[in-house]
């Protein structure tokens, strides 16, 4: 969105000055949304937040001024010192929940709550950048705003984002702070969003006193999650706790993080780079192992099959010039009103060398045969006669396999999620552009 500067106001007070990209300020739609969101952010009460002090457009530059918070961000602290425990973890949970109550009372939704947007000041945690993520809506990229690791299921599937999404993110942040790992792991955006929508969060090692509330806040259904106020009430064991009272509790039990912010950030960066070196080394070893497996498989006359275990629901072969694509529908499962189809494509070239060279295999992407865009896949509810478009923007589960030369028999898995499919639907047709229509498939229930 732009740059952030450390500045002084006219009284000499240090502030954070956020200057938006110049090309944005010239857009009329951006200016209108900017003024609206900035004014809403200025109404947020100053409890466990870095409040917005000023906002406007000056000589074509849109800017926001917020209080400067002296302290490292939560991500840097956890990376440098490990998971939080005891009173500080509880104070973090209360402080962030308090900030969300204040933000939501001003009719603002944060939309991008994550460890790097939580600063650990000497007096307790402070949430920053609330409401600012919404400004990117003017760029026409609403579906991708936010950090995948802490997105809610409804955010991941392109549905309306509400205060319940912030509560989901709160739970993800507390799980990360208490265990050192995000509840849905790490990885590429497509894999993360799929896990968030379909998988159970991993909360091993989280403090037993926080576990039940975090589990409730991570419910896939936003209507079943507690509100930020209810989270705060549960944490403090009272009803309708005032945010002033909660702030005092945080100040009383908070133990300031040791070490200056710059030192902690440097430690976190060193650890991150060390992990990256280990990951790179592991990737080399893994690549050697994969090559060995491929050689063994090919020498034995077999093929490498990465598809889902079990019999496919349907399959067919699509012949093109110089190769065959073996298409499988691996599963079609329902979770509430969301139905997900997993499908895969195996590449079988007729060239004796059996190696695919860069080209336009699917006719949809110039990046390779298995980077096919899945946006056009359609589910047809055969009972109610309704067509459903896919909800996921990137439906490839094979991102680690990008930019490679595909060998004979290798398979790429894909998925597509469809929302609001009536529970009366027991069968469906799946229409995959250029690969054909698979009809009469039974919908299983998880």
- What string, H for helix and E for strand, traces the elements in order? EEHHEEHHEEHHHHHHHEEEEEEEEE
Q: Characterize the largest beta sheet: strand count, sense, and whether it forms a barrel.
A: 5 strands, mixed
> How far apart are the termini?
40 Å
* Uncertain segments: 136-144, 278-309, 357-372, 397-404
CATH class of the largest domain: Mainly Alpha
CATH architecture title of the largest domain = Orthogonal Bundle
Percent of residues in helical segments? 25-40%
* Radius of gyration over all CA atoms, rounded: 25 Å
Strand content: 15-25%
Secondary structure tally, helices: 11
- Based on helices, strands and strand pairing, what is the structural class? alpha+beta
Question: What is the number of E strands?
Answer: 15
GO molecular function: ATP binding; protein serine/threonine kinase activity
Pfam families: Pkinase (PF00069)
Transmembrane segments: 278-298
Protein name: Protein kinase domain-containing protein
SSE diagram, text form:
Elements: E1 2-8, E2 14-20, H1 22-25, H2 28-42, E3 52-58, E4 61-67, H3 74-81, H4 86-105, E5 118-121, E6 124-127, H5 153-156, H6 163-179, H7 189-198, H8 211-217, H9 228-236, H10 243-253, H11 261-299, E7 314-320, E8 323-335, E9 338-349, E10 378-381, E11 386-389, E12 411-418, E13 427-432, E14 436-442, E15 444-445
Parallel strand pairs: 8-15
Antiparallel strand pairs: 1-2, 2-4, 3-4, 5-6, 7-8, 8-9, 9-12, 10-11, 10-13, 13-14
Helix pairs in contact: 3-11, 4-6, 4-9, 4-10, 6-8
What does the model show?
Helices cover 32% and strands 22% of the residues. It has 446 residues and is an alpha+beta fold. Mean pLDDT is 77; it is low at 136-144, 278-309, 357-372 and 397-404. GO terms for molecular function: ATP binding; protein serine/threonine kinase activity. The chain crosses the membrane at residues 278-298. Pfam families: Pkinase.
């Amino acid at each position: 969105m732009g740059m952030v500067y450390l500045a002084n106001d006219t009284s000499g007070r240090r502030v954070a000055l956020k200057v938006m990209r110049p090309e944005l300020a010239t857009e009329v739609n951006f200016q209108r949304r900017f003024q609206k969101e900035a004014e809403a952010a200025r109404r947020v009460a100053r409890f466990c937040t870095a409040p917005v002090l000023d906002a406007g457009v000056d000589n074509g530059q849109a800017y926001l001024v917020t209080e400067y918070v002296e302290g490292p961000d939560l991500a840097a602290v956890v990376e440098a010192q490990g998971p939080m425990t005891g009173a500080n973890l509880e104070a973090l949970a209360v402080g962030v929940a308090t900030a969300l109550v204040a933000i939501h009372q001003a009719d603002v939704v944060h939309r991008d709550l994550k460890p790097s947007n939580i600063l650990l000041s000497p007096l307790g945690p402070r949430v920053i950048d609330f409401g600012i993520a919404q400004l990117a809506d003017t760029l026409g990229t609403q579906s991708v705003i936010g950090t995948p690791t802490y997105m809610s299921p409804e955010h991941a599937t392109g549905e309306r984002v509400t205060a319940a999404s912030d509560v989901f993110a709160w739970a993800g942040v507390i799980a990360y702070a208490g265990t050192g790992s995000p509840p849905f792991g790490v990885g590429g955006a497509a894999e993360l969003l799929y896990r968030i929508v379909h998988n159970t969060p991993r909360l091993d090692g989280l403090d037993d006193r926080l576990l039940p509330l975090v589990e409730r806040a991570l419910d896939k259904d936003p209507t079943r999650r507690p509100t930020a106020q209810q989270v705060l009430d549960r944490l403090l064991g009272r009803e309708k706790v005032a945010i002033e009272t909660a702030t005092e509790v945080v100040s009383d039990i908070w133990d300031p993080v040791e070490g200056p912010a710059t030192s902690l950030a440097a430690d976190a960066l060193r650890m991150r780079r060390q992990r990256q070196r280990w990951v790179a080394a592991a990737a080399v070893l893994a690549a050697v192992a994969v090559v060995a497996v491929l050689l063994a498989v090919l020498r034995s006359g077999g093929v490498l099959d990465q598809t889902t275990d079990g019999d496919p629901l349907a399959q067919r072969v699509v012949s093109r010039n110089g190769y065959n694509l073996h298409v499988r529908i691996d599963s079609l499962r329902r979770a509430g009103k969301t139905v997900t189809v997993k499908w895969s494509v195996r590449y079988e070239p007729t060239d004796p060398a059996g190696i695919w060279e860069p080209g336009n295999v699917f006719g949809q992407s110039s990046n390779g045969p298995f980077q096919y865009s899945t946006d056009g896949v359609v589910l047809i509810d055969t009972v109610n006669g309704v067509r459903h478009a896919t909800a996921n923007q990137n439906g490839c589960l094979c991102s680690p396999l990008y930019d490679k030369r595909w060998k004979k028999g290798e398979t790429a898995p894909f998925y597509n999620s469809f929302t609001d499919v009536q529970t009366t639907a027991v069968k469906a047709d799946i229409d995959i552009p250029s690969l054909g229509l698979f009809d009469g498939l039974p919908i299983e229930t998880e």
